[in-house]
Amino acid sequence: MQYAKHVKVLTNHQRHVPYLAHITPFLCSALFDVLVVASDTANKLDIIKQFDAIPSRKFLPLVYQIASRLSLPDAPGIQAEQKHFRQNIHDLIKRMVMDHPYHSLSQIFALANGDQVARVSQQVAGGVEMNEHRIAAAKQLLQELKGMRSKPALSQLVAAHERVIRAYIDLGAIKVPKEVGQISLQSTPLGALKPHTLSIVPVPTLTIPVRADCNYAIASTASSSSSSSASPAFDSSVVTISSFHPRVSVATSGVNVPLIIEILCSDGTRHKQLLKSADDLRQDCVMEQLFKLVNELLQVDREAARRQLHVRTYNVVPLTPGVGLVEWVVNTTSMADCLVGAHARYAPPTQKRDYRQNLLYLREAHESMQREEYARRFYEVCADFPPIFHRFFLEMFPSPSEWIARRSAYTRSAAVSSIVGYVVGLGVRHIHNILVDLHTAELIHIDLGVAFDMGAVLKTPEIVPFRLTRDMVDAMGVNGYEGTFRKSAEQTMRVLREKKEMLLTVLEVFLVDPLYKWALSAAKIQRLRPLTEGDEAANSEGGEGAAATAAGADRGEEEAAEAAAAGARPSVNSGAARAMYNVKQRLEGVAQKDVLSVEGQVNALIHDATDMEKLAKLYYGWSAFV
Description:
Strand content: 5-15%
Number of strands: 12
Distance between the termini: 58 Å
Radius of gyration: 25 Å
């Protein structure tokens, strides 16, 4: 069998290795063959049997994608070979949970809760595929784990995990007005949980290092103080929930009013997380998985590592199709807060309007559908509203050495996130969807629900590859996007293009996830627009809004045929085929049928991103004038 040699390597390679070594091109390709391509059940069984020899930790990065193929082995009407295949998939996932429960239980519970859409808004429910067999298989697996008398600790963990997730879901169902500010946790299901339940459940939005020996210990204040003698590479204590802060804050921005929960952890630290309801966070989760893979690719490249190129990531944990948790990124503020505040403080005396007045001025022309008038007003606003973002860096980093270090970090971060965002077609990059780290000045992109060129189906399509507006360039210094930004962008694009086969293979596994529904009706797209094309308040979360996460339209069978002709593997629908085709074209440097060098491709992207004519055609809430 063609996989035997690779299986032997993966099986015998016991050294603690990073994510990139787990997701080898072989393993991705084999998984894809098992989960999607292979129609011959016997062939799938042969591959799965060989997977039994591979340590389960090497499958963890794709646990959600593998688990999404769960089916009932004993379902009526299936053939014997299909039954064996389903049983092998079931056994593989069960082995992963038994060996690494802290890294896989949340994903299984998310599948088991796939039928809980009654409390979800219609925008989310319309993009959810409910597979009763998959849901039943996930629930059956959880019941098996809870009933394992030979592993009482695992049984207790599964039961406690279930109670905590149920409490999160019930809390998410509570409608809280924005003006309330805070609510008491004691009156909610989460506040009713007992300490002995919380003490064994990990903090869902914290990263737990994977242990090759599967030996996980609960972290405590005592163990954390004595862990200095332990090897950092193998210090994998599990941080669990000690208690919750008695008050839950209500976020002031966003359509669906997220709740901010603070946790006192077992190691004595505090951790915040965002509970979002009426939002399908599964694509955000997939995008973060992809960003982590990109980071591994950049880390093993000598030149990219020397430049410290990376994408800032955070953890996303879907609980149901409409409820999920997002890690709170500490010491950050939105780019909107940075820019609006700086423009107010340093406005020239001759300035006619402030930021909000400029938005309203542009909104009038936008809503009246007067394109020429809108463009005229856009140029007028730009002439009257000079870029000011460099002032923010002077305020935050007064020391010359720190100022230049943070400016360089910001510029590199902007370059990497721009190129990665372009490759995956990340949209809705308005200033509320980009955070600035107040300590490092790096950028963190949030609200990742509009990706794979879904921004092109909005009423006002996004026609720029990424955000590189005047204020963003202003903060890069006198050279602007020349120098650090351009070189960092070229190095990032070079690495992605050199590793395109690995990226495409991983993306294929992501994009054919049966839990994601690509094709939308025209009526559904129309319902989505109030969330993504609304006023500034709506746009503060428009990129991740419930509808936007499911947004994306099928551009027709013609592009799917082009993708197939270009050598793309079969996918579950033409929407996924179109997305793969576009990503493949970008990783090959294809632009309007011309193949560009890395330098030529980056130069063309910078030109498009800074093209004032294109910026003048964007939705006014994108704030292209700052």
